[in-house]
Amino acid sequence: MNILKEKNWIESYCGEVGDLLKNSKVQEMKNYPHHGKISTHFHSVYVSYIVYKASVKMGADARSIVRASLLHDLYLYDWHTTKHEEKHAWYHPKAAVKNIEKYKVSDLTPMQRDMILSHMWPLHKTPPNSVGGFLLTWADKYCADRELLYHAKGFIPVYNEILRRGEN
Ligand SMILES: [Fe+2]
Ligand SMILES: [Fe+2]
Fold it and tell me: 80: Cβ–Cβ under 8 A, 6 or more apart, which residues?
């Protein structure tokens, strides 16, 4: 990604999620490895940035969609070492919703709640019930594949610029 071409996108993205980027629970995601050496925080910013651009271009409710997308993996544990009664793939979307509510990170509309809970579709039987939900499930898999293949490097300058603008 060309950082100069992304300037306006970065600015408007930070305008929608700036309060979330400053939130200590969102920043805590930097401590947890998600795919390989990539943190859950990097993954969540990467996914939500791609979803944001797509939802603006589609004329969808970009603000609601990008905010839920940034929070979709707010499960706050290292899934490699912390085990639960259910497998991580099934458990973590529910943990994310619980944490968002418990720590009052953001209010969630029914649409945003559904986006987060259904983001593992089609592993989950119930598909998302909104455009934003489908965008999130698509971007989540696209970014995860790129992360696993070590191709997410191109997003690093954009990520750093988002942190510089959004966290201050
Ligand atoms: Fe996830
Ligand atoms: Fe994810």
Answer: 33
Query: Does position 19 have pLDDT exceeding 80, yes or no?
Result: yes
Give per-residue pLDDT as tens, 44-55: 999 999 999 999
Residues of the chain by 3-state class (helix, strand, coil), percent to 5: 65, 5, 35
- pLDDT tens for each residue of 98-126: 999 999 999 999 999 999 999 999 887 78
Whole-number Å distance, alpha carbon 141 to ligand 2 midpoint, is 7
Q: Which token pair is 124? A: 């989950």
| Domain covering 7-166, topology | Hypothetical protein af1432 (1.10.3210)
Delimit the domains of the chain by residue range.
7-166
For residue 107, the CA-to-ligand 2 centroid distance in Å is: 20
CB atoms within 5 A of ion ligand 1 belong to 73
